[in-house]
UniProtKB/TrEMBL annotation:
Species whose genome carries this gene: Smallanthus sonchifolius
Name under which the protein is recorded: Uncharacterized protein
Domain of life: Eukaryota
Upper classification of the organism: Eukaryota, Viridiplantae, Streptophyta, Embryophyta, Tracheophyta
């Protein structure tokens, strides 16, 4: 959305792009997570077989500890969708282009801090460090997307 906002002031185009990005990103994240976790599962099962650790009384416990590719894919798609809906909602209520861009940046920044906080609480990591890392990473991504799109848009590419 930041890229489209850099070169086009039309709210409809920005919202449509945001929705397309939400769907494409959620699908991409889910598929990537599924493939990654399934590969991890294959490695862990192969390792367990090599070590002959699958004795009957341990087998059920060990199977419960194995990663679930479908669960990981769904969690990734949901997390991406929740994050992507924030700028989409922010952009859909503002008419003025400059105000819309500012609101999108502000809403996304707040969401990044909240997601950083949630991640730190769930992971047991330092809250401030996690929030700052999430915020700075997101701001950098928005700035790079905006800047490169603005550059390409003004060069007529």
């Amino acid at each position: 959305m930041m890229g489209v906002g850099a070169v086009k002031q039309d709210a409809k185009a920005m919202i449509l792009t945001g929705f397309a990005g939400l769907v494409a990103g959620a699908c991409s994240m889910a598929i990537g997570e599924f493939v990654s976790v399934y590969s991890q599962l294959d490695i862990e099962v192969a390792q367990m077989k090599r070590e002959n650790r699958m004795v009957e009384n341990q087998e059920e416990k060990e199977r419960e500890q194995l990663p679930n590719p479908m669960q990981a894919a769904l969690a990734s798609a949901l997390a991406f969708s929740l994050g992507a809906i924030v700028p989409l909602l922010a952009a859909s209520i503002i008419g003025d282009h400059k105000v819309r861009m500012g609101v999108v940046v502000a809403a996304v920044s707040l969401a990044l801090v909240i997601f950083g906080w949630i991640g730190s609480v769930l992971g047991g990591t330092p809250v401030v460090k996690s929030c700052v890392r999430s915020l700075l990473g997101g701001l950098m991504a928005m700035a790079i997307t905006f800047g490169l799109t603005k550059l390409f848009g003004t060069c007529g590419l």
